[in-house]
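Q: My labmate handed me this sequence with no annotations at all. I'd like to see what the chain might look like in three dimensions before we decide whether it's worth expressing. Could you predict it?
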Amino acid sequence: MGTVIGIIRLRSVRAGQQACPQGVAEHHQLAKYAPNAIPTASTTATPKARKRKGISASPWALSAGGGREKRGPNDKRGRLIGRTKGGMNTKLHAICDSQGRPLNLFVTAGQVSDYIGARALLGSLPDVEWLLGDRGYDADWFRNALKDKGIRACIPGRKQRKTPVKYDKRRYKRRNRIEIMFGRLKDWRRVATRYDRCPKVFLSAIALAATVIYWL
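A: Here is what I predict for the chain of 216 residues:
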């Protein structure tokens, strides 16, 4: 028994809309809502560079209080829309079971690191023996956290690692199940191309599509 973790970028077509007052990271469990607060941090770019590129100071911080604040027309913190090489998009982090059925969904801005999604989904991992993930999740803290939970990681090491990491290559081939899951979700036009400005509405549409496809 094992689970698979992965990410996908979803294209956003309404980048010029006014920011939504919700936070900039949304988490959804198909069984129940369970938002996880994660620490805030600023990007490595300078304030002037962030203003020039249209990047918010804290693109992946979860708003705990939900209070309103004054924001400019170019502030994208409330919409989970990030600027990447491919344009404006949103990143979907997901966990699926051994049969490729989605269990947990987490949405962040497009430029957010994979580690943020891994940290947010770590607390909701089911009691399994293996976790499969691509090399984007190769981090010592993540491997140690999985070990503390009694989960064996099947994650290839990054190329810049001085010491290669051994992993089960035969088992790692099963990671294609989450890619197939993402492909089926993108068959829904509203999921493949984001039309909603509010991240909660967008995440709810993804959860609805996942429920109809896999759980009904």
